[in-house]
Design a protein that fits this description.
OB fold (Dihydrolipoamide Acetyltransferase, E2P); four-stranded mixed sheet; about 200 residues; cytoplasm; single chain; hydrolase; nuclease; mainly beta
Amino acid sequence: MTSSLVTPGQILANTSTHTPGPGTHVYETNILASIIGTSILTKTSGNNKPTISIPRQTPSNEPSTSGSLPKVSSTVLVRVTRVQQRQLAASILLVDPRPEDVLSYTQTTNDDLQFQAVLRREDVRTHEKDKVVMNDMYRVGDIVRATVISLGDERNYYISTAGNDFGVVVATSDTGNAMVPASWKEMRDVVTGQAESRKVAKPS
């Protein structure tokens, strides 16, 4: 049995060589991660294909970085709270998160929020900034990886998602189902297969 840390949408294996287990889904011929966690490869006796799965885990300890103060160039994990035409508001959940820390902040409703952030339309991406439509990039409730570009005022930090590593990491579809990345600008409902536009972060 082997294991490794994975994020939603990450390709784990092919259905020709492996069997999908809990915490995964099949897209075309690939087995993809549906949740953040540690993938487990279970080998069986005989000629059966090994099963790859991602058990749901409840972290026993708070992430060590949860009390850190954001600073310029910090990577932050935020939850979108309001989307407007020219900017969105978000609550900072975690500063300089490790990949394994994301799980603890997406499986709880008690966020213990400390800081607020603003993402302006011109800071969403690096190209065609004047064509950005905020509702096509982010929705309320999305969990987004971003970087701090300014300390702003006493109430808000200014953040940016320009760059491949930044954008939505966890999202729920309009029908209430989990979604996984389908491309850099689209996420897909794991149940219905319906696509929704997002500015998607490259999996860690």
